[in-house]
Amino acid sequence: MALDRLSIERRDFPAARRGYDPEEVDRHLREISEQVEDLQSAQRDSAGSSAPTLAGEAAEQVRTIVEAAERSAADINERAEDEARRITEEATRESRESREQAGAEAAAQVRRVEQAAAQMLQRSESVDQEVTRLLDEIRGAADQLAESVRQTADGLVGTLRDGASSLQSDLERIRSGLGEISGDGASDAAPAAAPAPAAPEPVATRDEPVEEEFDEEELIEEEEPAAATDAGSEGARLIALNMALDGTPRTETAAYLDENFDLADRDAILDEVYSRVG
């Protein structure tokens, strides 16, 4: 290497992390280059006048300084390389540890997710079993309820049919009674009208039987509407009950009663019948 200022102060050393301070290295090299330059200048100045021994000593000093500078530069370079190697190894180790830690954390996260998924699947199966059990219980209860309702409905239908048959029998009996009452009234009215042709009797004598006959007819007329009214109310009640059991609306039943019966308590009969039918 040439022993000049530019060669000593070279700045193309490789940079490394955590090495020597570049400013201190530059300052040290600058001092060495100044000393070498001073020695070379002194050597040139004393080239003609100095003794050979002095020149040799100066050359030896220069050589010593240069060797020291080279050793210093080599030492600095070696230390810088060692520091760079150490930093690289440390960075590699940290990177490897980071990767291993990240892999371990990822594996742990995967295990946690798998455990959570297994728990969710187990809960889902448990819920599915519980829902199936509840559905079976609900179906069983619904079947029992339907059977109970069917039996109750059958019983009610049978009861209503029995009641309707009984009411029909009562209605026929009442109608038969009404026919008998009408026949009795006609037979009673015919004998009462028979004495009318007796014209030869005296006026006074005729007036008495006529008066008695009038009273007798009036009595029959008074008794017959009462009996017919009682029988008509009962018959109207039975007919209204039968129509209500058949599902006939109340308005239609009322119109039918008004058309076929002369009732003073029609609304009371309808209230009673439709309240019983429900």
Quick recap:
The two termini are 128 Å apart. It is built from six helices and no strands.
Account of the 3D structure:
The chain is an all-alpha fold and 278 residues long. The protein is built from 6 helices and no strands. The chain is 85% helix and 0% strand. Helix 4 packs antiparallel against helix 5. It starts with a helix and ends with a helix.
Tag the structure with descriptive keywords:
mainly alpha; single chain; 6 helices; rod-shaped
Total number of distinct structural domains? 2
Shape: rod-shaped
Euclidean distance between termini CA atoms: 128 Å
The main pleated sheet reads as:
none
List the helices and strands and how they pair.
Elements: H1 5-8, H2 22-45, H3 52-193, H4 203-245, H5 250-260, H6 266-277
Helix pairs in contact: 2-3, 3-4, 4-5, 4-6, 5-6
